[in-house]
Amino acid sequence: MAHSSVIISAAARSRQSAERAHRIRVWIAGMAALIFCVAIGAYGFDYYRLPRELRPFSDKHELLRPSGQIGINLGILGTALFCIIFLYAFRKIIPWLGRIGTAKHWMDFHIICGISAPIIIAYHASFKFNNIAGVAFWIMLAVAISGIAGRYLYAQIPQSLSAAKTSFQELQANEDQLAEALKQQSVFSEEKIARIFAMPTEEKVRKSSTMGALGTMILLDLRRPFQIAALRRQASTLAQYIYSFGGLFSTGNARIENIVKLVRKKASLSKRILFLDRAERVFHLWHVVHRPFSYAFAVLAVIHIVNSVRLGYF
């Protein structure tokens, strides 16, 4: 029994270490993409804001125009990013890709590339979206936006409803402990916590439209950080108030943060269970939109590249 516990503990530590390493890689990739996009934007700002007819007179025209030294390489980079994006789908049919990392890890880099690629392609086109290249860009932008929406919906759907309800029941079992803690700390008002737990009724959610339900989900998520901040401010000293930027971040007080963590987790899970059916419907609809747009962009991108090579831009 003790030996099994040691093995389980070692496996848990290994998973935590792997997850921590992944978060570091994601952070580095995200910051690198942000710095690169900001740097190109800052360098070419005075060029990109010029009217088209005046751009040939700019010193940066030979570098930043679509067929220029920087412009063409930005196009290659944007295309490479989209090749990486499509690997996320290919890992499901290519065995050796499926053995590398987890679906969640692939999704994180999929999102970074999906957000960075349209920006880099916009720089490549020097914000001129004409003909087939323009159509490809707007489709690519639709793919990126739908991808962000899909990631949000994916996070709302538990692996199984029974698992979600089990976790929810465990949280409900801790409500007595939370209530007792609140009694001992009079600075927290039950009214404030009740506002965080306030949700639409099941009847109202069932009668609402699919997009209306989605909008309500997003609104609840956007509102919660400010409700949590208000909760923190009740128990914060002046130093903690400043340190937490008015309650938006951790106060550094373990007693406060433990209660905040439980409140946030319960509110989030309650929302996910309440909107599970609606989230699944929208997620299935998302697949209908996201994939065809992705394939359409791939076809148009290939046509654009072939035309560019044929016309001698490379």
Description:
With 314 residues, the chain is mostly helical. It is built from 14 helices and no strands.
Structure in a nutshell:
With 314 residues, the protein is an all-alpha fold.
Please describe the topology of this protein.
Blueprint: H1 2-48, H2 61-64, H3 69-90, H4 95-98, H5 103-124, H6 131-156, H7 161-173, H8 175-184, H9 190-197, H10 202-207, H11 210-235, H12 238-243, H13 254-274, H14 276-310
Helix pairs in contact: 1-5, 3-5, 5-6, 6-14, 7-13, 9-11, 11-13, 11-14
Give the key terms.
0% strand, mainly alpha, 314 residues
Low-confidence stretches: none
**Alpha plus pi helix count:** 14
DSSP strand count: 0
Shape: globular
**How confident overall, as mean pLDDT?**
78
Radius of gyration: 25 Å
